[in-house]
C-alpha cells in the first residue's frame, strides 16, 4: 500500500492556504498547517477530515520554530514531506514614501525572508522524499512592479527569482521548485489600508483595472503546479494579461501603473 502523501502549508489559517489545505485533504493527503493566527488554524483544521491534519502556531521569521514544526509534522508522516507550500505573506502596501520603516521591514521579513527560511530549512526534509516539491506563492505583482504596492512587489519578485534559481540548484537532487503567480486574491488580506491613504489594497488593485481571483482557483493551481512541469503557474485573468503585456506591450503596462498610483493617491 502506498504511503500517504504529506503537505506542509504556511499561512494555513486563511485564504489560499486554507483553500489548498481543503483540496489536498479531500484528495487524501495528510496536511500540516502553520500560521501565527491560532484561531484561523483551528477553523481550517475543523474543515478537514478527522485525523488528516496537524496544526503548528508558527511565525515564518522564527527559524527555530521552522525546525521544530517540520520535525513534529514529519514525525507523524513517517518522515515523509512531499510538498512544502511557502505561502505565508502579508499585504501591507501604499506608496513607499508613506510607509514606515517598521512596515517596510515587516513586509520584507515575512514575504521574502520567511520564504528563504522555508526553502533553506525545508530542503533537508524534501530531499528525503522522492519527487518532492517546494511550492512558493508569488503574485501578479512579480510580473511588473505594481504602483501603490512597491515593497510588496519587490518581495514577490524575490520569491519568483528564488523559485527560478532553486529549480536549477535542486534539480539534481530530484526536488522540484515551483511557484504560483496569482492575480490579486479576494481575501481579507486586501482589506487593509494601502499605507497611510484612505484606500484599501483592494481598492488600489481595482482602481488600476485589475480583477480579483477566488481562492479555490488558486488551490487548484497549487495542485496542478505540484504535479506539473511549469516553473511558474499563472492564475487568473489579471496575471495572464500582465504576463502578456510585460512581454509584448510594456509601454501600455507602464501607463496603467501610472494611472493606478495616481488614482490611489487622490
Describe this structure in words.
- This protein has 266 residues and is an alpha/beta fold.
- It has one domain: NAD(P)-binding Rossmann-like Domain (Rossmann fold), CATH 3.40.50.720.
- It has nine helices and nine strands.
- It has helices at 15-26, 38-47, 63-75, 101-126, 150-169, 201-207, 215-227, 237-248, 250-265; strands at 6-10, 30-35, 53-57, 83-86, 133-137, 176-182, 184-185, 212-213, 232-235.
- It has a seven-stranded parallel β-sheet with strand order 3-2-1-4-5-6-9, with helices on both faces. Strands 7-8 form a two-stranded parallel ribbon.
- Helix 6 packs across helix 9 (250-265).
- The protein is globular, with a radius of gyration of 18 Å.
- The model is unreliable at 261-266 (pLDDT under 50).
- Keywords: Oxidoreductase.
Query: Radius of gyration, rounded?
Result: 18 Å
How much helical structure, as a percent, in the residues? 40-55%
In spatial order, strands of the major sheet run 3-2-1-4-5-6-9
Beta-strand share of residues: 15-25%
- Identify low-pLDDT runs: 261-266
The CATH level-2 architecture is identified as 3-Layer(aba) Sandwich
Number of helices: 9
- How many strands, what sense, and barrel or not for the largest sheet? 7 strands, parallel
Query: How many domains comprise the coordinates?
Result: 1
SSE run: EHEHEHEHEHEEHEHEHH
Text of the CATH class: Alpha Beta
> What class, by secondary structure content?
alpha/beta
Integer average pLDDT: 87
The coarse overall form would be globular
- Report the CATH topology name: Rossmann fold
Question: In CATH, what is the homologous superfamily?
Answer: NAD(P)-binding Rossmann-like Domain
For the termini, the CA-CA separation is 62 Å
**DSSP E strands, number:** 9
Amino acid at each position: 500500500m502506498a504511503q500517504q502523501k504529506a503537505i506542509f502549508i504556511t499561512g494555513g489559517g486563511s485564504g489560499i492556504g486554507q483553500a489548498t489545505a481543503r483540496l489536498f485533504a479531500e484528495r487524501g493527503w495528510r496536511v500540516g498547517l502553520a500560521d501565527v493566527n491560532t484561531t484561523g488554524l483551528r477553523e481550517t483544521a475543523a474543515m478537514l477530515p478527522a485525523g488528516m491534519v496537524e496544526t503548528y502556531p508558527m511565525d515564518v521569521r522564527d527559524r527555530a520554530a521552522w525546525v521544530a514544526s517540520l520535525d513534529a509534522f514529519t514525525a507523524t508522516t513517517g518522515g515523509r514531506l512531499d510538498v512544502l507550500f511557502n505561502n505565508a505573506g502579508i499585504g501591507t502596501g501604499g506608496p513607499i514614501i508613506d510607509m514606515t520603516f517598521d512596515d517596510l521591514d515587516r513586509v520584507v521579513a515575512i514575504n521574502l525572508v520567511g520564504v528563504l527560511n522555508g526553502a533553506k530549512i525545508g530542503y533537508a526534509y524534501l530531499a528525503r522524499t522522492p519527487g518532492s516539491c517546494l511550492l512558493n506563492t508569488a503574485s501578479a505583482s512579480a510580473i511588473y512592479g505594481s504602483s501603490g504596492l512597491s515593497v510588496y512587489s519587490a518581495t514577490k519578485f524575490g520569491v519568483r527569482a528564488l523559485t527560478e534559481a532553486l529549480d536549477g540548484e535542486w534539480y539534481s537532487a530530484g526536488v522540484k521548485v515551483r511557484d504560483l503567480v496569482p492575480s490579486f486574491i479576494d481575501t481579507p488580506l486586501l482589506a487593509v489600508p494601502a499605507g497611510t491613504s484612505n484606500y484599501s489594497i483592494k481598492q488600489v488593485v481595482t482602481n488600476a483595472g485589475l480583477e480579483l481571483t477566488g481562492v479555490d482557483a488558486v488551490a487548484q493551481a497549487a495542485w496542478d503546479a505540484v504535479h506539473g512541469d511549469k516553473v511558474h503557474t499563472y492564475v487568473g485573468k489579471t496575471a495572464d494579461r500582465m504576463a502578456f503585456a510585460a512581454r509584448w506591450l510594456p509601454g501600455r503596462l507602464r501607463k496603467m501603473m501610472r494611472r493606478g498610483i495616481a488614482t490611489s493617491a487622490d
